[in-house]
Structure formats: structure tokens, C-alpha cells
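[job 4471] stage=fold_predict status=RUNNING
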Amino acid sequence: MLDQAIQLHEAGNLPGAEALYRRLLLQDGRDVRAMHLLAILCAQTGRQAEALEWIKRALTLAPDFAPAWSTFGNLLSERAQWKEALAAHDKAIALGFVEVWSYINRGKALGSLNRPHAALESFDAALALEPDNAEALSDRGVVLMALGRPAEALDSYERALARQPVAATFSNHANALQELMRPQEALQSFERALALNPDRAETHWNKALCLLRGGRLPEGLALYEWRKKRAVWNRPGHSASPEWTGAENLEGRTLLIQAEQGLGDTIQFCRYAALAKARGAHVILSVQDALVRLLQGLPVSVCGAADLPAADFHIPLMSMPLAMGTTLATVPADTPYLFAEPERVAHWQSRIGSQGFRIGVCWLGAAGIETSRHFTAERLAPLARLPGVRLINLQKGLAPPVAGIEYLGDDFDSGPHAFLDSAAAIQSLDLVVTVDTALAHLAGALGAPTWVALKRLADWRWFQDRDDSPWYPGMRLFRQSAPGDWDSVMSQIETALTREHLSGR
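[job 4471] inference complete, writing C-alpha cells
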């Protein structure tokens, strides 16, 4: 009967197979093979909770039944319980269930736990068993990208595509080409991905980033709207009004603009609120609560994210450049458009003093920002040793581990409002040197002299192969010469600093 059930299962007759599995279990409630296969069938038909119950029952009766541990790991992965899934896969392998998919699924769990080196070992173990397994090759490429090894990732993706040309792998292949600074080839690979799956939001979004980096704003911004269909889109709160597209007349109407991404994105793109006001709209800008006070100086109404008033139209903030028809030549670049509170400026001017060439430094971004955009404070040591230079720490609540970087105290920006002290301190400095994080946008919005240290393939808003920023006149960009090469960036900054600001001191 079990053989017959398996034949029906493999033939796709799931109702017939399920009936036989259940009949077997009525005859013998301890048949763990039938329980295991019924669990798999339940998962295949969208009944994950029931599948988990059956697999747990099987493992209770037969704790050394290795295939059930592997299936248990897969079910836990579907629930994003990665730690528990990894333990289950390790148990299955320890019990002798050494199959390609054991290692592939174990590698996926390790990757999701941000353990890329261990994940790479697991995918390599899978490929040792089956060198042409397309999924193992593709997943291996993802891990190699996370490890900053795009050339090896590209090779892995190409081997996968030779065996199984799928949209997701073509899209990842294009991302590797972007990291290798081969944007035209990347766009070709995105096109191949979209030919296979024209509705895949992730591909459209990644293609948008490639176009935007190249300065092709009209095309890129149009595709950037696909972010709204991504699973990870941070959709703003509900508004009953229609979405403004840029075509509708705003004269005398109320437009609600809603922040949707990080603090830096809001600081950079809040400038568009004034442009909407210039079209005759009453503009309400809804932002993260922490930014409300900082943005009060904008010529529009500013409210918190939960305070959603009635409006004639609404629009997510990151759709404003598209709605306004932004091109590279028409990027709104009037700065400053944010201002520090005068009494805070006076306070921090007094605290910092006027001695030396004062450089505010920031080497880390907020939690959750990709680590490749940051460097350690130790890399700033050469700047701290330059004669006449004072490095002022602009990292909130983080005492610098390097001698020569002055700490502004635990009370610096310690309140519920973000960047109020930072803005005032920046107004008291001669220069800001920062990694790509919200502080760079704050300094740019304040019109302060700012140098930004960027990784090799930077965020799209810094474009590609430029040492200036259309968004912030006077800002300088210093880019890695190779992925992970912060030494070259700091050498460029030290040379420019010595030549341009310190030679006459």
C-alpha cells in the first residue's frame, strides 16, 4: 500500500496518495514513513502547520529517522526559523542523510543567518556530490557576492545558467556584472531575466538601480516604481486619496507626501516638498517621528508618520523625482534647505571651539545598513595625526576607539529627535568626512563642506564614476579603486586635505 501511495504521489495524484497514507496510519499509527510522506504532501498543498505536526510526530516516534529531520529543516526554513532549521539539517546529515539537497538547504539556512563562509562550505559540499546542480551553483553565487567576491560569483552564476536559465539567476548575474563595473552587460542580463519572467519585481528594481547609477533618471525612476511590488517594500500608512502621478493639477489641492525608506532618504528627498508647493499645492510631509523637528524649517507642513490627515492626493516620497520629471540636468540642488537651531549652534560652537582645522567624522551607519559601506575608526588614524587637524566624532553615543578623535559626550543627539545636535555641530566645523549614511545627506542638506567615502559600487544616488554630486553642490566623492579597498580612499582624502586645506597652515 505504501508503494502504491508513493507511485500516486510521484505521479501527481495527491488526493489518491493522501488517502492511502491516511489509511496506512489508521492501520498502524506508528508508521513513521507514512507520517513523513504525508507531511511532505501537506506542505506541497499549502498546509504547513499540519505538515509540521506530522513531522514532529514522526520524529517523536523515530528520533533517528534522518529524512524526517531534513524535511523538518525545510519546513522550518519556510517559516524563516533559520537557527532551528540549521539544527535540523545538521541532525539529518549527522544521521547519514548525505544528499545534495541536504547541503543546499543547510547552506540556505546558514546564508540567512549571515554566516556566508559556512554557507559557502555547504554549497561546495553539495557541488562535490553533484557538480552541475544549478541551484547549488546559483546559491553559491549569492554567498560569494555577500563575501565581496563578484568575479567568482559571476562564474558560479554562468555555470548555473548554462544548466538552468532562470530569471532570478540572470538577475543575480546582472548584479555581479554591476559590481564588476560592467553596466552595459548587466543591462543585457536583466533583459534576459525579464524575457523569462516579465513580472518579477526584483529584476525590474535591480535594473532600475543600474540605470539610475548611469544617470539615466527618466528610465530608471520609472522602473524604480516596481519597488512597490517587492515583498520588502516599506509601504507608507494607508491614505484613502488617489496617488499623485505628477500629471494631476495641484493648484489649491492638498498633497500628502509620505516617507517610506531610511532617515537619509527622507533628508535627501524632502526637498521635493517645496517643489510641489510651487505648483500651488498645500503640502503635508509625513516623515519618521524622529525627523519631524529637524524638518520643521521646510516651507511645508511636517507631521509624524502616524498623523495622516485627509488629502486630495498622496504620494510616497521616493516617487516624487519621477512625478516631477527629474533628469540629471534638472536635479533640484538648491542648498541649504535644512538649518540647525541657532541656540544649538551657539552651544556646540562653544563646546567645540575654534582651534585647528575641525573635521567631523562618521565611519559607521545605522544598524541594518550594509557593512560594505563602512570602515573601522582605525582607518581615520592617519588624518588624526596630521598637524593642525582636529577630528570631531559625529557618531551618536559611540566613543571613538582611536586616539585623536574627540568625543562630544553621551548627551550628543541623545533625545528623541534625530540629528538636532549633529546639525548644530556640523555648522561649527570646517569639513565633514563621512561614509555613505544619513549624516552625509544631513551635511549636504545644510550646505556644509562634505567629503563622502564610497565603496566601489556605491548607492545609485551617487551615480557612477563621479567625484561630485548633482544633489549637493560642493560635495566631494572619494571612491574605492577596488571592492573593499578603503586604504586608497583614505589616501585620496589625506592627500586632498593636505594639499587644499593644510598647506598654508
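[job 4471] summary: The first helix runs from residue 2 to 10.
[job 4471] exit 0
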